[in-house]
Amino acid sequence: MDQLTLMRDLSVPGKSKMVLVVMDGVGGLPGPDGLTELEAAHTPNLDALAARSITGLSTPVRPGITPGSGPGHIGLFGYEPTEWEIGRGVLEALGIDFDLGPNDIAARGNFATVDEAGNILDRRAGRIPTEEGERLVERLRQIALPGVETFVRVVKEYRFVLVLRGEKLEDGLTETDPQRTGVPPLPVEATRPEAEETAELINQWLEEARELLADEPKANSMNLRGIAKVPPIPKMNEIYKLSLGAIATYPMYRGIGRLVGMSVLQTGETIESEVETLKQHWSDHDFFFFHVKKTDSYGEDGNFEAKVHVIEEFDSALPAILELNPGVVLVSGDHSTPWSLKSHSWHELPVMLWSDHIRPDAVTVFGERPCMGGGLGHIRHVDFLPLMMAHAGRLMKFGA
To answer: Domain count of the chain?
Structure first.
């Protein structure tokens, strides 16, 4: 029996509320003083909670595998990430409330800067502001492809969504981002014969789009990632008998929440505004996904101090979450984004779980090395939801 079927069979309604805090990319590596970003941060509230919790380290997918944001989060929500590959384009489109049809192809677009030879100088076009992205998207909307409708929507900063709608569109397509600078973007290629025509259409769109933006000082090119259709994924609310709320500032994470059956709660751009949103909707839902984005953004920028600051900012907000009297709190991340690598990595994530029914371990500091000695040991992201449900009294006994 697979885990989702088991959870569907054992889950029962209850009254205890759960909060899953995801500090995106929180895992790090030692900095100038020998401490990781999390260990260097002043986190009295996280440490105090750790002293009352059980802690450990978690692997998002499998040992040694570096996850994208989609697999990192799908595992957190109890889905085996190797069985549910979800294109980032789908998540971005859902995150901006685009009404994706079952046969639509969605891609996440990143504006980029290239030199005269077409080699990538900046994969994010200097993180142009959203207003600039909207102007560029308006130019791209004039592109027409034979036999299909095209939709281009701004997401945030340098990100946009491209959606193709028409008959016989197929997924099974590669991305164009080579994940490094100094080389040209890659062409979209089909990974199965049925997708050849769709790959040709997208490459045609890219060629015209790059010609249209060739005169732009920063965003004179773009890359497409996560080109895919909506998968038939079962919904969390049906599996776990929960009412779920998602609180996230970035569209992609709102999209993944919507995909798995969460109500997406409108919130502001700061951690403080996210806490206020949590307070406003506390009586409406049983389970809350609380997402902190900029730990990841600053990790990708290689900005050690800024990532430390965001961790400290969340630490200051934690007491307001605990004052709501949740029955279960789990704090971790979706993947590691060490400042020194400036990218996602395969490293395990610190995790701590608190409830009234915990056997606390000896860990008193929330950090990568302290959590190595925690009572949870080495677990996987897919273990989080069963543990939270059990500690909330929402799982029946298995067997006679």
So the answer is: 2
